[in-house]
Amino acid sequence: MMTRLMKLVSVALLITLIYLIVIDSERQISSAYEKETIQAFDARLQWWRDARFGMFIHWGPVSLKGTEIGWSRGKEIPVEIYDNLYKQFNPTAFDASEWVSIAKSAGMKYMVLTSKHHDGFCLWDTKTTAYNIMSTPFKRDVIRELSNACQNEDLPFCTYYSILDWYHPDYNISSRGGPGYSLPAGTSPQMDRYVSYMKTHLEELVMNYGPLGVLWFDGEWEEPWTEERGRDLYAYCRTLQPDLIINNRLDKKRDGMEGTSINGRQYIGDFETPEQRIGKFNTDQPWESCITIGKQWAWKPDDELKSLKECINILVNTVGGDGNLLLNVGPMPNGEIEPRQVERLKQIGQWLGKYGESIYGTRGGPIEPQPWGVTTHRDNKVYLHILQWPKEKLMLDSIPQNIVKASCLTGGKVSLSRTDQGYEILVASADRDPMDTIVVLDMEK
Ligand code: FHN
Question: pLDDT class for 35, splitting at 50, 70, 90?
């Protein structure tokens, strides 16, 4: 009798011991990154800030329907149809090196692919669920192929990951299937169990496909997610890969599509995420605008694409505000990026091929955005991006140093004259570039 009791007691002790070890290691994780100095923070983000321009990709079996990823589940597409699209998903034209070369031809310096969006489908060979790319007729690990292709071309590979998951039974929200949807009978959601499912995913993505450039979280706004869980997950990811860069969508302080943290309070994460808009001028908090090249994030036949002028205008105004631009494409169900989108990206790349020195490796300012345009700077050069000429001359009254020389990157002559109010810049109208007249000011050291 005593032996049985002793056995029970020792098993109970062993379980308690294991539990304490796990909790303690989690606690150690959560404090590991808090001591990061601003110098270390800046060094960690340097490559990303210098890059200024990346490719966002929203893709999955929903591309078969041409409706929005995640959001059309239970709305335009009934849940049971949406959740079985993977059985027909066979993007045989998918060529990871082609996607990478398209990104590079656009002048994009990093790539962010949706690994799991709100619909819960996993684009990699995860051991946690059969709802993944290996269960499709395609049977190829898209994340493996794309991360390898990026590595071969020195293009930082990054993944988007949605915290909210309207497919997983442990994620406790009934709105996941759209209006009127309710959790399947007998479902008893367990958020702790769901979080450990997520942590396994993130470990797979970082350890098997990394190192990643950026982990781009999304879907933090629903009530099952808490700030405390966000803090824990941020620390967990930074412990998996200490130099990983993570956005602010683990926290509960994001001001909606503005993407900035509410009241400017310190937030969990490394950069703010304005969405479908150009962020406000901010040289203190790193930020990145994510914007679609069309209207929809995922593939949409005949989507309305932004013109080249709109794309360049968005890029210049974003970088002039000291932000990055993450421009999104939605690949087709056969695995190709639509030729119209490829053409637009190539045009952007041609522009950057000529004028990239005024974008890459620069910071926004020193002059804040003006009605006539924005400025960027690097070392002792200031680039004036004149998008809208005021009358004849441009008056600069807030340049902090003396100007040694003025030239026109987009061609033509610049005349510079000094007045009591500051400097006057003139470029003859024949030499003005309707896309962006870029005047380069060489400043006194
Ligand atoms: O709901 C998602 C949306 O589908 C898309 O992924 C964007 C991109 O950042 N984020 C969410 C909307 O804010």
Answer: confident
Distance of CA 171 from the midpoint of ligand 1 (Å):
18
Residues 345 and 379 placed together within one structural domain of the fold: no
- Residue 58 to residue 60: CA distance in whole angstroms: 7
Question: Which protein residue has the closest C-alpha to ligand 1 atom 10?
Answer: 218
Q: Given 361, 377, 392, which residue is the final one in a domain?
A: 361
Same domain (yes/no): 72, 122 = yes
Angle CA 22–116–191, to nearest 5: 40
Q: How confident is the model at residue 391 (pLDDT cuts 50, 70, 90)?
A: confident
> Are 144 and 292 in the same domain?
yes
Average pLDDT score over residue span 84-103: 98
Q: What tokens does 63 get?
A: 């591309």
d(CA 266, CA 153): 35
Atom of ligand 1 nearest to the CA of 69: 4
Does 16 map to a domain?
Answer: no
Tell me: do 83 and 221 sit in the same domain: yes
For 58-71, how does the pLDDT look when each residue is reduced to its tens digit (9 = 90+)?
A: 999 999 999 999 99
Characterise 373 by phi-psi region: left (phi > 0), alpha (psi -120 to 50), beta (else). Answer: left
- What's the total number of domains in the chain? 2
430 vs 400, more confident: 430
The minimum-distance atom of ligand 1 relative to the CA of 216 is 9
Query: How many angstroms separate the alpha carbon of residue 258 from the centre of ligand 1?
Result: 13
Q: Are residues 73 and 169 in the same domain?
A: yes
Question: Residue 370's domain spans which residues?
Answer: 365-443
Mean pLDDT within 377-393: 93
Radius of gyration of the chain (CA): 25
Cα torsion at 121, 125, 126, 129 (round to 10°)? Answer: 50
In a domain, 76, yes or no: yes
Could you tell me the distance, in angstroms and rounded to a whole number, from the CA of residue 55 to the centre of ligand 1? 15
Query: Could you identify the atom of ligand 1 that is nearest to the CA of residue 68?
Result: 4
